[in-house]
Amino acid sequence: MSSKQSPTSPGSEGDERKRKRKLSNRESARRSRMRKQQHLDELTLQVTQLKEENKKVRQMIDGASDLYINFATENNVVRAQVAELTDRLRSLNSVLQIASEVSGFAFDIQDVPENLLEPWQLPYPVQPIPASADVFQY
Question: Which residue ranges have biased composition labelled Polar residues (predicted)?
Answer without folding.
Answer: 1-11
